[in-house]
Amino acid sequence: MVDQERLEFLRQKAQLVRKHIVQMVTEANSGHPGGSLSAADLLTALYFQVMRINPEKPDWPERDRFILSKGHASPVLYAVLAERGYFPVEELSTFRKINSRLQGHPDMKKLPGVEMSTGSLGQGLSVANGMALAGKLDNLDYRVYVLLGDGEIEEGQVWEAAMTSAHYKLDNLIAVVDYNGLQIDGPVSEVMNPGPLQEKWRAFGWHVFTIDGHDFKEILATLEAAREIKGKPVMIIANTIKGKGVSFMENKVEWHGTVPSKEQFEQAISDLS
Amino acid sequence: MAEKMATRDAYGDILAQLGEENEKIVVLDADLSKSTKTVVFAKKFPHRFFNMGIAEGDMLGTAAGLAAAGKIPFASTFAVFATGRAFDQIRNSIAYPRLNVKIAATHAGLTVGEDGGSHQAVEDIAIMRAIPGMVVIVPADGVSTKALVTAAVNYQGPVYIRLGRPAVPLLYKEDEEFVIGKAKELRDGKDFTIVAAGIMVAKALEAAEILAAEGIRTRVLDMHTIKPLDEEALERAARETGGIVTVEEHSVIGGLGSAVAEFVAETHPVPVIRVGIQDVFGESGKPDELLEKYGLTVEKIVEAVKRLKNNTAAGL
Ligand SMILES: Cc1ncc(C[n+]2csc(CCOP(=O)(O)OP(=O)(O)O)c2C)c(N)n1
Ligand SMILES: [Mg+2]
C-alpha cells in the first residue's frame, strides 16, 4: 500500500494533468476535454505508480503496455506521457497542430510511449489481446492495460474481443471501462445502454471489479488485486465523472468535444488549482 | 496437361514450412482454417495458431497487437470477409500504424463457385490498393504463391495476399525467384502487351499463343504485385508495344486494370483495354462456367487484343 504522502503526490499530479488537458484543448481550439478529464486519475495511477515502464527505453520488450482504446482522450495520454518524461512538457502546446507529433488521436509511429494508434473506437481490446498473447508466447511477464469508453463498448468488436480474452485466459490483461455515463449524443443509458456492465463482463468470462475511478486508494488497491487473478482477464469498471475537476464541465454531455472560451479557461484553471 | 495446385494449398504448405524456420510467425483464422489451409500450420504449431472464431474484425485487431509485440502474424479468412468485414481494423489498426501483419485472403473472385455472389470478392483488390502503404500481391500459381508468401515474411509492413480456391496450372519451375513489385515477363512480343494477374495469367499465355499463330506477337506480364506496380516494366511495355490489355479475376474498377491505366495515362499514354468483371456481382455456378459467363476467357483476351489492334490501326 502507498502512504499518504504518495497519495497526495498522485492527486496533485492528476490535477496538473487536468490543467494540461484544459490548456491543450484551449490552445488547439479543438479536442475532447470531457473524457480526458474523467480518465486523468486512472492514467496517473497507471503511469506514476503501477506500470513497469522506462521512459528512456520506450521500446523495452518487457515493459507494461497501455492502450488508449478511446483515442479521442489523447490529451490525457499526452499530458501523462509528458509529465512522465517521454517528451518535453512544452511540446504539449503543439497538440493538433501541423507537423506535431501530438496528433488529434494517438499515433504510435510519431510519439514515443504511444503503444497503439487509436481513434476508430472499439479496436483497442483486440489489439491488447494480441499483445497479451505475444507476451505469453514469449514468456514475458509484462501486463497489458487498456482503457475503454462506456460508449465505445457499444461496438460489436469489443464483445468479440471480450470472448477472445477469456477464451485464451489472458490474465496478463487488465481492461478498464471509463464509466462516465456519457457519450456524444447523450447519456449512454439513453443512446444505447451497454449495461448491466458487471453481469455482462462476468458472463463473458471476466473477473470484474467496480471502483470509484477518482479514488486513488481504491484504484491502486484494485490494480494490485487485479494482478492476483489467475486464468482470467480482469475488467475494472471505473465509475467516473465526465469533465471531472472542472466545475462547469462535470457531467455535462456538451463538454465531450467543446473548447472552453477565455473566461471558461480561466475558471477551469482556478477550479483545478 | 500441366500439373495443378490451388494457390490456397500452396499457401497452407509454405506457411507450415516457414513456421519451422521462423519462430515469429503466428497464424490466425476465423473458423475457416480448413478452407484457407491454415489448418496445416495449426496442426504443426498449435501453440502459435489462434482460432478467433467468426469474428474477423477482432482477428485483424488481434493480429495488429501481435505484430506490435514483434510477431509476424498471418491472418486468413475469405477475401470478402477480410476486406469487407474487417476493413476499418485493417485501415486503422494495421495500415495506419504500419504494423507487420500479413493478410492472406483465400476464395477471391468468381472461382469460389457454388457459394455464389455473397462469397465472391470482386472488389477486394480495389479496397486494399486504396489503403496507403498496403502491398497487394496476387499470385498466379502455386510456385509463385510459395515464393511470394516467403517474400512477404521478409518484407516489413502490411501485405495483402489474394489467393484462390480452385486448382490452377503450375506456370513456374520450383526454383523460380520472385521479388515483390517486380513483374515476370513470361513471353516477349513487340505488338501488344497483356498484363495479367492471378489465375488469369495462364489464360493470357494461352491467348498469346493463339494470337502468335495469327501473327500478333504479344508480350505477357505476370503482374503478381499490384501494389507497388512494376512501373519500369509497364513503362517499357507501353513504349515498346504501344497498347495494353489487362486481365484480372476482379472488377475492372479499382483493380489491376485501373492501376495499369492510371499509370500509363500519366507516363506513356497508350490504349488500354481492361478484361475483367464488368461492375457486377457474381453468382452460383461452377468456376469455369462463371469465368465463361463473366467474360474471363482466353477468347475474350484474344478478342480484346484484336480490338486493340483494330483501334490502333484506325488511329483511335
Ligand atoms: C468507430 C467510431 N465511431 C464513432 C466515433 C466518433 N466518436 C468519438 S468519441 C465518441 C463517443 C465516445 O463515448 P465514450 O466511449 O463514452 O467516451 P468518453 O465518454 O469517455 O469520452 C464517438 C461516437 C469514433 N471515433 N469511432
Ligand atoms: Mg463515456
Would you summarize the structure shown here?
The complex is a heterodimer of chains A (273) and B (316). Chain A is an alpha/beta fold and 273 residues long.
Descriptive labels:
heterodimer; A: 273 residues; alpha/beta; Rossmann fold; 5-stranded parallel sheet; B: 316 residues; 2 domains; 7-stranded mixed sheet; 5-stranded mixed sheet; 13 helices; binds thiamine diphosphate; binds magnesium ion
User: What name does the CATH topology of chain A carry?
Assistant: Rossmann fold
Q: How is the CATH topology of the largest domain in chain B named?
A: Rossmann fold
Q: Output the CATH homologous superfamily of the largest domain in chain B.
A: Thiamin diphosphate (ThDP)-binding fold, Pyr/PP domains
Low-confidence stretches of chain A: none
Kindly describe this structure.
The complex is a heterodimer of chains A (273) and B (316). Chain A is an alpha/beta fold and 273 residues long. Chain A has a single domain (4-271), classed as Rossmann fold (3-Layer(aba) Sandwich). In chain A, 41% of the residues lie in helices and 11% in strands. A 5-stranded parallel sheet of chain A has the order 1-2-3-5-4, with helices on both faces. Chain A is globular, with a radius of gyration of 17 Å. By secondary structure, chain B is of the alpha/beta class. In chain B, the strands form 3 sheets. Chain B has a 7-stranded mixed sheet with strand order 3-2-4-5-7-6-12, with helices on both faces. In chain B, strands 9-11-10-13-14 form a 5-stranded mixed sheet, with helices on both faces. A two-stranded antiparallel ribbon of chain B has the order 1-8. In chain B, helix 10 (231-241) crosses helix 11 (256-267). The mean pLDDT of chain B is 97. The structure holds thiamine diphosphate (TPP) and magnesium ion (MG).
